[in-house]
Amino acid sequence: MQKKLVFLKTDEDFAQFRRSQQVSSKNLRLRIRFNTNQNMIRFGFIVPKKTLAKAADRNLMKRRLKAIFQKHLSHIKPSDILCFPQKSSLNLKFKDLEEEVLNILQKGRIWKQ
Predict the structure, then answer these.
(1) What is each CA distance from 74 to 49, 91, 93, 104, in whole angstroms?
(2) What is the pLDDT of residues 52-74, one digit of tens each?
(3) What is the rounded CA–CA span in Å between residue 40 and residue 51?
(4) How many Å apart are CA 33 and CA 8, to the nearest integer?
(5) Which of 35, 93, 34, 105 is nearest to 69 (CA)?
(6) What is the Cα 12 distance to its own chain's centre?
(7) Nearby residues of 6 by Cβ (< 8 Å), 6 or more positions away
(8) Which SS3 state, helix, strand or coil, does residue 79 take?
(9) Comparing C-alpha atoms, which of 88, 110, 112, 102 is closest to residue 21?
(10) I want to staple 44 with a disulfide (CB 3.0 to 4.6 A). Which of 8, 63, 72, 87 is the partner?
């Protein structure tokens, strides 16, 4: 049985990302925050109207990212991860988006070997 994804919910959770590590690629930007006493992974997804105007597109992008993180949850170190997909990420196929997410996680040093 797979673990469930845990999400960032409160404004305080999101406000703590002001001092966090940022990793970027052409189609995706992640902000990563490590806690010393944290033993779980928490996710937040921010897809503003300015980036993707249609609600259906914003929801599609969130569903794709959630599915990718759910699939690879056991390989990610405990941290808080905030995702900002770019407009160009909507045109990617799921497999290409998955490869990009994995590359960016390795770049951010939160991928377990």
Answers:
(1) 32, 27, 23, 16
(2) 999 999 999 999 999 999 999 99
(3) 29
(4) 12
(5) 105
(6) 18
(7) 40, 41, 42, 43
(8) coil
(9) 110
(10) 8
**Secondary structure class of 80 (helix, strand, coil):** strand
Is residue 83 within 8 Å of 28, Cβ to Cβ? yes
Q: With a cut of 70, say whether residue 104 has pLDDT above it.
A: yes
Report all structural domains of the chain as residue ranges with CATH numbers, in order of start. Answer: 6-107 (3.30.230.10)
H-only helix segments in the chain: 11-15, 55-71, 94-107
Question: The pTM is what?
Answer: 0.90
The pairing of beta strand 80-85 with beta strand 42-45: parallel
